[in-house]
């Protein structure tokens, strides 16, 4: 993470020489959180890939059973085939439930990706004291992060937290107002 490169800006010479600044420590902790999230996402992606393979096999098996049932003689198809068709229908319902679960996972992965981006952006941001002491820079950071959220739930959470911060007086209400895209924060371009 390039946060360590920026970490000595504004630090006392003794602190910088020792490699310790509060900003660096915050950036390192945020980096740790981001790395743990990345690891968890990768592990869950592997599990979902295994589920997708199993799901694909179920679809193929269901199709094969339907094809075999269609080839049965009429008298057997009416008795045994009906039971097989019921079983295939039950499998189809379970597959539909699995599709909903995959959609939920996809949404969760996107939201976690937004959190990871926010953490890494914040880690870079806190390493520059000139930024962290400027209300304008904080407003830009908040507006950049606001544009990141795509779902209604994410927007509601962001708005709720920002309103709570504004009520406590730690961030001016003006920080909640939109700013144009492409804002530069530090040495990285946020969109």
Mean pLDDT: 76
Q: Rg, please?
A: 26 Å
Q: How many separate domains?
A: 2
**First CA to last CA: what distance?**
19 Å
Q: Widest sheet: strand order?
A: 1-2
* Shape verdict: elongated
- SS-derived structural category: mainly alpha
Low-confidence stretches: 1-9, 171-191
Number of strands: 2
| Main beta sheet | 2 strands, antiparallel
Number of helices: 7
Helix content: over 70%
> What series of H and E elements makes up the topology?
HHHHHHHEE
As a percent range, the share of strand residues is: under 5%
Quaternary organisation:
single chain
Brief account:
This protein has helices spanning 3-6, 13-18, 22-71, 74-126, 129-132, 135-148, 152-168; strands at 184-185, 188-189. It is an all-alpha fold.
Would you give an account of this structure?
This protein has 191 residues and is an all-alpha fold. It has 2 domains: 21-119; 128-191, no CATH class. 77% of the residues lie in helices and 2% in strands. It contains 7 helices and 2 strands, in the order H-H-H-H-H-H-H-E-E. The protein has helices spanning 3-6, 13-18, 22-71, 74-126, 129-132, 135-148, 152-168, and strands spanning 184-185, 188-189. Strands 1-2 form a two-stranded antiparallel ribbon. The longest helix is centred in the middle third of the chain and has 53 residues, at 74-126. It is elongated.
């Amino acid at each position: 993470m390039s946060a360590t490169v920026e970490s000595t800006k504004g630090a006392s010479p003794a602190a910088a020489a020792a490699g310790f600044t509060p900003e660096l420590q915050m950036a390192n902790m945020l980096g740790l959180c981001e790395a743990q999230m990345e690891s968890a996402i990768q592990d869950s992606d592997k599990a979902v890939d295994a589920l997708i393979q199993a799901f694909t096999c179920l679809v193929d098996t269901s199709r094969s059973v339907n094809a075999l049932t269609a080839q049965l003689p009429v008298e057997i198809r009416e008795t045994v085939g009906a039971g097989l068709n019921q079983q295939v229908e039950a499998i189809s319902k379970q597959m539909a439930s699995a599709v909903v679960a995959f959609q939920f996972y996809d949404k969760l992965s996107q939201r976690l990706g937004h959190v990871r981006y926010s953490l890494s952006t914040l880690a870079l941001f806190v390493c520059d004291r000139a930024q962290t002491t400027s209300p304008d820079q904080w407003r830009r950071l908040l507006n950049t992060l606001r544009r990141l959220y795509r779902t209604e739930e994410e927007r509601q959470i962001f708005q709720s937290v920002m309103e709570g911060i504004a009520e406590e007086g730690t961030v001016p209400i003006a920080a909640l107002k939109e700013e144009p895209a492409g804002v530069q924060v530090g040495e990285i371009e946020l969109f």
